[in-house]
Amino acid sequence: MTVLRAVHGAAALTAAGSLAVTLWTGLEDRGVALAFAVLVAVGELTRWSDTRARPAAPLGAAGSLSYALLGADAGRPTQHGAAQVVTVVLVAALFGAVPHIWSGRTPTADHLARRVLTVGFAAVCFQPLHDRGAFGPVSGPAHTLPLLALLGLTSLCGAVLGAALAHCRTGWPFGPLLREELRGLLGIGSAVCATGAVMALGVAVAGLWALPVFCLPLLLVQLSLRRYAAVRATYRQTIASLARATEIAGCTPAGHAHRVAALSLAVGRDLGLTGPELTVLEYAALMHDIGQLSLVDPVPGGVTAALPAAEQRRIALLGGAVVRQTGVDAAVAVVVERQADPCPEQPLAARIVRAVNAYEERTRDAGPEGPLRALEELRLGTAGDYDPEVVESLARVLAQPRGRRAAVPAPGDGRRTALSDPAPGWVTHG
User: Fold this and answer.
1) What backbone phi and psi angles, to 5 degrees, belong to 266?
2) Element counts in the chain: helices (H) and strands (E)
3) pTM > 0.90
4) Contact predicate 137/30, CB 8 Å
5) What is the DSSP string of 140-195?
6) Better-scored residue on pLDDT, 249 or 6
7) What sign does the CA torsion over 124, 126, 129, 132 have?
8) What is the pLDDT of residue 424?
9) Partners of 72 in beta bridges
10) CA dist list (Å): 2 to 7, 9, 380, 430
């Protein structure tokens, strides 16, 4: 939380100082400032939450970055400085965030802090050097190459900020979060950076009419991303509904698959799994018991951890066969099939599902001492049945406050959780 307060404090000081300087010196190039303010505000108004409930505003991010890198308007040098850039972006972002703050749909404090610091960094690096002529003429390579280098540094700073904020909020390891942020730069992040730079160069040559022209491709990309997110959400809901088949058939208790999936995701994040690996882990955990639907005689209480190894393997193979027929990624079927294999031969996701499933079954209706007793039994089984690293990770996850476990429900709690895979990329969010 110290890092979180430091980031918010740095953003607040940057915003307050920029606002004071702008009020003291006055607003330069008001038409340009208004045009970019409208662009940023519209980008914020049209933002949405990704699968981790983080605000995604690619158009607002591109507009902010473009204003920070703007040095001319239709061939006429602009007069605004870094302080005015931060002020205009902050006011526009706040205006566009009002509906989101009012509805409480998306977090705003981290989003604004990230936006202020990344835009401030780009503006402080670009505006003074541009005023001194360090970037050369807009049409020359001496302007474009330093601009690309600055974009790279700004993207890196944004990725570090995003990973640090996510680490403070969730407690997940910083390294995997940073890798996810950097991976996002290869997708929508690169599109936002390119659009921001092209808009700045276009306005410098053609004036403000370049803004709507260069915004259109990014708007289409944003629309495609939202549709893709909707398809992914529907796909995930289908998987979750399929996982409930064992509950409806009476093979497993209500909420068992979702509790195993939520706790498996928390363990996977603690062990540093990446976004695609977490998606496979989630789907496999949701459907880990689906092989029980093929049994003539249901397992009492759905407790498979106490069955003989041969019977566990048979149920796992039946489950893998069912998963393959659903059209889900083959990697998910592999995890389901191998969750009963000898521990050294299992992939990490299968080891996680096996340990978490055993823990959940042992703590079901076990009373207050159940969790400690279950962990002790898992530790005793690390000689052959369970991975010691996975068991210790499970213990660390369970020792965390409930809010830092990605909404893992208590044993016996039948409610279902909102499970998701990370959607990286600093620029889409900040």
Assistant:
1) -65, -40
2) 18, 4
3) no
4) no
5) SHHHHHHHHHHHHHHHHHHHHHHHHHHHHHH---HHHHHHHHHHHIIIIIHHHHHH
6) 6
7) negative
8) 31
9) 77
10) 9, 10, 37, 21
**Which uninterrupted H or E stretch holds 48?**
strand 48-49
Burial 189-199 (b: 16+ CB within 10 A, else e): bebbbbbbbbb
User: At 315, which amino acid appears?
Assistant: I
Q: Compute the distance between CA of residue 276 and CA of residue 193 in angstroms, rounded to an integer.
A: 24
User: Rounded distance, CA 161 to CA 121, Å?
Assistant: 12
Whether residue 180 contacts residue 422, with contact meaning beta carbons closer than 8 Å, is answered with: yes
DSSP state of 101: H
Tokens of 364: 């079901």
Q: DSSP letter at 28?
A: S
Residue-wise DSSP of 311-325: HHHHHHHHHHHHHHH
Mean pLDDT rounded to a whole number for the chain: 80
Q: Exposed (0-12), middle (13-18) or buried (19+): which is 299, by Cβ within 10 Å? A: middle
Distance CA 190, CA 205 (A): 23
- Read off the pLDDT band of 402 (50, 70, 90): low
| The pair of three-digit structure tokens given for residue 292, joined into one six-digit string | 């029980």
**List of residues 6+ apart from 335 with CB closer than 8 A:** 280, 281, 284, 347, 349, 350, 353
What are the tens digits of pLDDT across the range 304-328? Answer: 776 777 888 888 888 888 888 877 7
User: Are the CB atoms for 280 and 334 separated by under 8 Å?
Assistant: no
